[in-house]
């Protein structure tokens, strides 16, 4: 399901140096998701990635540089996932509310699959520990969050233009609620060891949106 929703990309040949850099970031990302950035040491990364200290510092100046690289990779690889999902839904329906509800169903399935494969959220983990990073990392986290907010807000406003809300509701808050549900759901699902719980939370939000615009 996840792969079918992402844009198809032709295979890209990478150099040995790029492969090493990717291996370092893969190891670091797995560790950060498991126990946080502060608890992830360079020595641990060296051991797991099977590289020397000089090899690490050839690619990254320090841990902050590694953090920036991880977030940049997340942005380039995953920032468009939400947009891809809702565009796919919009291809299935001309009605903005129906398309949004279909998109939420696809999102619930996709996020459940992602969490089952690798529980946690890199962005959320970094936001919780943002005092460890310099302004570049913090600015990038804000930028990505604003992109997601704008995507959801535009769709909620399009829905409201065709289906006026049946109850008084702040449309911006309703859009922001989806980000809150996703991030909060990730935290709760991880805490309880129930990755599929995130799917239930997104579907509950979907039911609420349906009630707001169609009534009970």
Describe this structure in words.
The chain is elongated. With 216 residues, the chain is mainly alpha-helical. The longest helix is centred in the last third of the chain and has 28 residues. The protein has 2 domains: 47 residues, Arc Repressor Mutant, subunit A (Orthogonal Bundle), CATH 1.10.10; 136 residues, Tetracycline Repressor, domain 2 (Orthogonal Bundle). Helix 5 runs parallel beside helix 9, helix 6 packs antiparallel against helix 7 and helix 9 crosses helix 10. It has 11 helices and no strands. The chain is 75% helix and 0% strand.
Top keywords for this entry?
216 residues, elongated, 75% helix, Arc Repressor Mutant, subunit A, Tetracycline Repressor, domain 2, 11 helices
Spell out the blueprint of helices and strands.
Layout: H1 2-5, H2 16-35, H3 42-49, H4 53-59, H5 63-78, H6 81-90, H7 96-117, H8 122-128, H9 135-162, H10 171-192, H11 197-214
Helix pairs in contact: 2-3, 5-9, 6-7, 7-11, 9-10, 10-11
């Amino acid at each position: 399901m996840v792969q079918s929703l992402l844009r198809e990309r032709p295979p890209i040949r990478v150099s040995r140096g790029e492969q090493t850099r990717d291996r370092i970031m893969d190891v670091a990302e797995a560790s950060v998701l498991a126990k946080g950035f502060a608890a992830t040491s360079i020595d641990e990364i060296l051991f797991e990635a099977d590289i020397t200290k000089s090899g690490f510092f050839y690619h990254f100046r320090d841990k902050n540089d590694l953090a920036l690289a991880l977030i940049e990779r997340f942005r380039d690889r995953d920032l468009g996932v939400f947009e891809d999902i809702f565009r796919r839904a919009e291809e299935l329906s001309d009605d903005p509310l129906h398309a949004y509800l279909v998109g939420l169903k696809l999102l619930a399935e996709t996020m459940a699959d992602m969490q089952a494969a690798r529980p946690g959220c890199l962005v959320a983990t970094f936001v919780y520990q943002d005092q460890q990073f310099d302004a570049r990392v913090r600015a990038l986290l804000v930028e990505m969050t604003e992109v997601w907010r704008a995507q959801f807000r535009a769709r909620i406003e399009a829905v409201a233009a065709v289906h006026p809300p049946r109850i008084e509701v702040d449309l911006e808050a309703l859009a922001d609620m989806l980000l809150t549900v996703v991030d909060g759901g990730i935290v709760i699902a991880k805490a309880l060891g129930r990755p599929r719980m995130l799917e239930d939370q997104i579907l509950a939000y979907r039911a609420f949106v349906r009630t707001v615009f169609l009534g009970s």
